[in-house]
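To the team - histidyl-adenosine monophosphate complex, inputs and output below.
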Amino acid sequence: MIRRQFLPQIPYGTKDFLPKEATHKRVMENSLAALFARWGYDEVVTPAFEYLETLNAGAGDGVAQGTFKFFDRNNNLLALRSDMTTPIARVAATRLKESNPPLRLFYLANVFRHEQAQAGRQCEFYQAGVELLGTGGPAADAEVVALAVEALAEAGLDNFKIGLGQVEFINGLMGESSLTPEDQQKIKHHLVARDLVGLGEALTVSGLGADAQRLIRHIPLWQGDDAVIQEAYGQVKNEVSRSALENLADIKRLLAGYGLERYIRFDLGLFRDLDYYTGMVFEAYTPGLGFPLCGGGRYDTMVAAFGIDCPATGFAFGIERVLLALERQGIDLPDPAKDVYIGWREGALPAAIAEATRRRQQGQAVELALEPATREAAKADQVAKGYARLLYVGDDSHVDES
Ligand code: HAM
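Output:
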């Protein structure tokens, strides 16, 4: 047989989770799944790839540029899911017919996007998230924001803030004007990128009146506590922007009921780079990480693409980003459990197997040597492998522990 040389590399933007990292990921996923279940959410698992058309129908064609696409044997165009919101909307559109709304669903899943990879930004990454479908009021939005805060706390973080915005605020301002949809998109694009120079230039050539230009230029600066809402309310006259501000104030009041308002900071300049949001949007930030830990918001028109009118809201957070934040903030996560290493002398394997079985049944993490060894050699193996104790099965199957 001819052995071919191959490069032991993995594709750009992917990563291996070695045992310690994989344990941290598993611990986090388990505790989040338990938290989501405590809030009444049921887990769903969907295929890693879907028809490209399905993903585009939910999230808009803009997302297609970032998706990994390929063909099946029948020449159908498929794509790896780039988030879980569209697949869940697709599932809900069929499931909602049978179940009583609201539908509360959660997921733990890998998703895929073409990205410029760096620490905290990969092409394959893991999300934990929830979607709350079938209800439109601020109570649902407050619930998902509260759950996002609880999820970050459950993961071990405390030092973080949630930025809370509303996409209808700027829609109201732009709706007052005669801007074309393309020009509106350009302005939003600069706001998403927080590119104030580009924003200024786009506004100058937009044909918008001086007042509207001044207000839109000011949007990224409207960040902070309740005073921001009051100030913005005093400056905008249109109903759409005003009810967006009222919606934010309502959500914040409900979050106070959860005892979580200290985490919340209004940010009227928060625009997410996914096009499907129709109302409240939010992101979480922590010091030392140049990216949001989580993001979400209301998307009331997506499920309609799959045949059912259904308001919805939700969020997802990036498992790797949270793990990175914990590491950078020096917050320890449990290492893989390594309780007992069992070594044995020639002929004592059956007794060693019996001892390993007994200990495993008690819930201990046990590694059993596969070859006989002296006590000293077994001790050296136990230490090298990082086990807390050595159990050595010696003459007459005598067991001693150290
Ligand atoms: P997103 O903001 O695109 O929202 O992603 C959510 C989270 O996934 C981010 O806050 C971040 O922690 C993580 N994330 C995003 N991109 C990357 C990347 N390239 N590498 C590592 N982590 C990343 C969504 O995906 C929406 N589906 C959230 C949502 C649910 N909205 C409503 N419901």
